[in-house]
Design brief:
Layout lengths: L5 H12 L3 H14 L4 E7 L5 E6 L6 H7 L25 H7 L2 E7 L9 E7 L2 E2 L3 E3 L4 E7 L6 H5 L4 H18 L4 E5 L4 E5 L6 H13 L1 H5 L1 E8 L2 E8 L4 E2 L5 E5 L2 E3 L2 H10 L9 E2 L1 E6 L5 E2 L10 E2 L2 H18 L6 H18 L22 H10 L23 E3 L4 H6 L6 E6 L3 E6 L2 E6 H18 L5 E11 L2 H9 L1 H6 L3 E4 L4 E8 L7 H15 L5 H16 L9 H13 L13 E5 H7 L4
Parallel strand pairs: 1-8, 13-16
Antiparallel strand pairs: 1-2, 2-7, 3-4, 3-7, 4-5, 4-6, 8-9, 10-11, 11-16, 12-15, 13-14, 17-18, 19-20, 20-21, 21-22, 22-26, 23-25, 24-25
């Protein structure tokens, strides 16, 4: 039995704290933020393997503080010995000695309290060996340079990924810290180019966060983010959550911060999935950034060496707060859909117009500096354009009323404007003007036009009705005049029979019928005429996929969604103008009607200005 040397102890600690170059950068940036810095600049060469330099304008250190800072378990951030009231990002005193034990590190610092004639001080640590401080030149703040990271631990060095991969991890670390501290400017470069340059956001904290989130997560998120504010039993939640129609395939754009500390917590992902369960497909994930302000004594930030995980004293309270706040924001959004839907539509239309233009007589060109579109139009093309712009029903003079003007446009049913429909244009979704391909409703608004997917929209409306009925006095059922027998495999029959009581709550009464079939005797009254056999088979497939893992409430939600899909207005059904307008009015007063139960948009709104741009009028 023997005591390990201090150098070896520090290298072991470094293996826990400094997993890769991005980990070292994170520790150094957190020190800068704790020092009150308003600007942090980071340079990482060769992915951080060759050199990491972090420069800040914080309070700096005196010579005496500098000498103590590189000693193990020395910190100025922990007052007393109470680990339950931690208000800083760092507190263990492990970062600097651990990094210095596996690299060649130089710290240059000048305290804010230093007089004009006092110099800065510089200290070097190489493989755990500390050199005496020396006078240096530096303004207020601290600059730390870490060279040859892991040279003292060759085994760890071998496990580093390619420089580009290591650099991408550093980008993720800095972006997360930047989201949590919008009033601090950040930059990251590799010595030759700057990858991140975030200026200090102005305004109050709530508005500054939105600006910073837009800079990191993209303008689409900033334009389609819902404000989140809630408080319960001393725990305050704030931040922004994206509309369901703006989503990703992974959870990479979901961020949780606890007291300014970016953390990765399964609690967040579970709470978000629960809140968005009714609005988005199970294989898609919303975008959001949530900030929890928690009394230090109810959260443990000391459960992971890298401080990336936390433990709440009452996790159920935190989960309920997140789910409730998100659902409240989604309800307040009403029928709103994300602007990305319209932008994607305009982009697709623009590409379609460009691809269909005759290459010999008309050249579609980008918008010029004066705001117009450059074109080369032949005389014949110009005359053809005039013919296309003639009023519908009035033939060009040289055609005598024949040609393209005869008959009605295929697959379209148009309604002439009336005084009543003109008044409807003031509504958000406007007045119905036509039905295309027996599935898409075209409505005119005072500011443009709206295209509605009638099946997706009615699916959401039926689903919301079912939820209300379920919460009230149950869903009304209607008995089938002739019970329908659905053939299935025996395993599916057993799964459906085991959930028969749950289905009955939703208005669907079924029972086993022989060895490989079920008989359906009653269906929800909201369904009307529907494909009962298709509904039962879909329910059997869902039970096969989710099995026993789903909670009862989650099962009922999925079943409601499946029933709503089968009970909604199907594609291919012709609607009268009264039916179309009734659908639009119901959408406007129904929460979440901007997306169907699978997270797809139910309508696309195009502004008149955007439409005119497509045709070169602006």
């Amino acid at each position: 039995m023997r005591r390990l040397p201090d150098g070896l102890v520090n290298r072991i600690a470094a293996g826990e704290v400094v997993e890769r170059p991005a980990s070292a950068a994170k520790e150094l940036i957190e020190n800068a933020l704790d020092a009150g810095a308003t600007r942090v600049d980071v340079v990482m060469r060769d992915g951080g393997r060759t050199a990491i330099t972090v420069t800040d304008n914080g309070m700096g250190m005196s010579r005496e503080e500098l000498e103590v800072a590189v000693e193990r378990h020395a910190t100025s951030k922990l007052k007393g010995e109470d680990l339950t009231h931690i208000t800083s990002l760092g507190f263990r005193g492990e970062a600097l000695p651990s990094i210095g034990a596996v690299s060649r590190m130089t710290i240059t610092t000048r305290a804010a309290s230093a007089g004009p004639e006092e110099s800065a001080w510089s200290l070097s640590v190489e493989g755990g060996r500390v050199s005496p401080p020396e006078p240096a030149a530096l303004g207020q703040g601290t600059r730390i340079e870490v060279r040859d990271l892991f040279y003292a631990t060759p085994a760890r060095l071998k496990f580093l990924k390619a420089p580009r991969t290591e650099y991408s991890h550093a980008v993720d670390v800095i972006e997360r810290l930047a989201m949590a501290h919008p009033h601090v400017a950040f930059s990251l470069g590799d010595g030759s180019r700057t990858t991140i340059r975030l200026n200090e956001a102005e305004g109050d904290l709530f508005q500054a966060r939105l600006v910073r989130l837009g800079a990191v997560m993209g303008r689409d998120f900033e334009d389609n983010a819902l404000p989140i504010e809630a408080e319960r039993e001393g725990i305050r939640l704030s931040g922004y959550a994206g509309l369901p129609t703006i989503n990703k395939r992974t959870t990479s754009h979901q961020f949780l911060f606890v007291n300014g500390r970016p953390v990765r917590d399964k609690l967040l992902y579970g709470a978000v999935r629960g809140a968005y369960m009714d609005f988005i497909s199970h294989d898609r994930h919303p975008l959001l950034a949530l900030f929890l302000d928690v009394p230090p004594e109810v959260v443990d930030v000391n459960v992971h060496p890298a401080k990336t995980e936390v433990r709440f004293r009452e996790p159920g309270l935190v989960r309920g707060l997140i789910v409730g706040a998100l659902k409240h924001a989604l309800v307040a959004a009403g029928h709103r859909a994300s602007t990305t839907v319209a932008n994607a539509t305009l982009g697709a239309l623009g590409r379609s117009v460009e691809n269909q233009m005759p290459q010999t007589s008309y050249a579609w060109q980008p918008q010029n500096r004066s705001g117009g579109y450059g074109t080369t139009v032949s005389r014949g093309m110009a005359e053809a354009g005039m013919a296309y712009q003639a009023p519908i029903g009035q033939p060009p003079a040289d055609q005598g009323g024949g040609g393209m003007w005869q008959g009605e446009a295929p697959q379209a049913r148009a309604e002439a404007p009336t005084p009543e429909s003109a008044a409807l244009e003031a509504h958000p979704l406007g007045a119905a003007r036509a039905q295309l391909h027996e599935n898409y409703i075209v409505a005119q608004t005072s500011e443009g036009m709206v295209i509605v997917d009638q099946h997706a929209a009615h699916e959401r409306l039926v689903y919301e009705r079912m939820k209300k009925a379920l919460e009230a006095d149950g869903i009304k059922r209607q008995m089938l005049l002739i019970p329908e027998v659905v053939d299935l495999d025996e395993a599916s029959v057993e799964r459906l029979a085991a959930r028969a009581e749950e289905f009955a709550e939703l208005g669907l009464v079924l029972e086993p019928f022989g060895g490989g079939a079920v008989v359906v005797r009653e269906v929800p009254a909201l369904m009307g005429e529907a494909d009962v056999a298709g509904l039962v088979r879909d329910l059997a497939e869902e039970l096969t996929e989710f099995g026993e893992a789903m909670a009862l409430k989650d099962k009922l939600a999925h079943i409601c969604g499946t029933i709503a899909c089968h009970g909604s207005v199907r594609s291919g059904r012709r609607l009268t103008v009264e039916e179309m307008n009734a659908l639009l009015r119901e959408m406007e007063v129904t929460p979440h009607s901007g997306q169907c139960n699978h997270g797809r948009p139910t309508y696309v709104a195009l502004g008149l200005n955007d439409i005119e741009k497509l045709f070169g009028r602006r």
